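[job 4471] stage=fold_predict status=RUNNING
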Amino acid sequence: MESVKPLSDFFSVIEKDYRISSTHIAIYAALLRYRSLKGFINPIEIFRHELAPIAKISSKYTYHKCMHELHEYGYLRYEPSFKKTRGSRIYFFDFELRNIELS
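[job 4471] inference complete, writing structure tokens
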């Protein structure tokens, strides 16, 4: 059940955020799936061609736009690599700790 917690925490945080669309949710869920396959490491390094099919996204523009927005909105830290041999880095936040700090 512990593997569902990051997604559950994400849903709790985005509940009132009108900026988040189903595409953002698909990307975030796909990132969490990929992260779980890698042993819950933080950060993960991933290529768009690995993540887009999991998130059911075919457009490069939509993928990059949503990744930048998730970063801008504070849901993750996205560091694009711009290199064909190195994936972009994604850092995950602990929403539970962030809520404690904001209180």
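[job 4471] summary: The chain has five helices and three strands.
[job 4471] exit 0
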